[in-house]
Amino acid sequence: MLSADFLALPQAELHLHLEGSLQLETVRALAAKYGAPVSAQDILQRYAYRDFLEFIETFKWVSSLLRAPEDFALALHGLGEQLLAQNVVYAEVTLSVGVMLLRHQSPEKNFEAILAAAESLRSRGLQLNFVFDAVRQFGAEAAMKVVEAAERCSSKSIVAFGIGGDELSIPAKEFRAVYEKAGIIGLHRLMHAGEVGGPEEIRQAIELLGAERVGHGIAAVRDPSLMDLLAERRIPLEICPQSNIRTGALAKQLELSAAQIEQHPLPSLFRHGIPVVLSTDDPAMFHSDLRSEYENARRMGLQEEELKQITKMSFEYAFINEDDKAALQRVQRATSALR
Ligand SMILES: [Zn+2]
After folding, report:
1. Could you tell me the distance, in angstroms and rounded to a whole number, from the CA of residue 282 to the centre of ligand 1?
2. Residue 195 catalytic?
3. Three-point CA angle 241, 254, 198, nearest 5°
4. Which of the four, 100, 183, 206, 290, has the lowest number of CB atoms within 10 Å?
5. How far is the CA of 289 from the centre of ligand 1 (A)?
6. Distance, CA 216 to ligand 1 centroid (Å)?
7. Is 264 helix (H, G, I), strand (E, B) or coil?
8. 5-16 pLDDT, tens per residue?
9. Which domains does the chain carry?
10. Residue 332: is its pLDDT beyond 70?
């Protein structure tokens, strides 16, 4: 059990997909709006996966219900409420702009609605920034269009570009020019790697694409020299334990038919000196929230002092300007000192 002291700490969350945060009621409301009503039972069935590709299918289905700018605003409001309820004061929200473009939506209009929703959350003590995400299996050309959309939106709230999806589909090197362009327009660089793929995916994301944080990266535990590199260069892994169980990613890395949360490599990675930030990935789809992920980390054997260090890192490795970071860290320190 986490102590009341720990639960009172302000939190930050850095790996969180808007599309994966839609609670049952929101999904039902959107499905009804678009003339294909579903029951809670139907949704729960879709939210149970046997493997990573089944999860991607469900992610596609939920994304298909986000059609108009106001749907995205509704989704962000829902996510904001969940974060505020957990004492989260800062989050980086990933938007699947690759999917918006595939569906011929306007990322500019969607983002305008999202930004307006974010503004109202800010007044309630939650600061949000955004990651424009491309889908790996859609290819480099489609990924470049995501970077171009970020450039057109031209907002200081878009802090990073990333790629998610099926990391085994297309080699990292194909995305070199895309990441170069993202860097040129001032975006930080992220990539999902070493989730279902091997350690070499992580190495390539860092060496070839300049990834500054790695989404998941649990495969690193299979490669001691890569663990050294992550620790030396201070490249954080965005660890999402429940996601790794539900998608079967952890079982795949461990070459088991099923894996338990206690087998997660988070403690080994963290105690090797690799920066770690703890996140939920797709909280609604994985039936998790940030607090339960910290509970999971505790069940893996991490001490509460170590969890506090991880919380601190979520602020330290956030993509925010130094003034905002200092202000958030002051809130964090003040709360820690009171406890
Ligand atoms: Zn993710």
Report:
1. 7
2. yes
3. 85
4. 183
5. 14
6. 8
7. coil
8. 999 999 999 999
9. 4-338 (3.20.20.140)
10. no
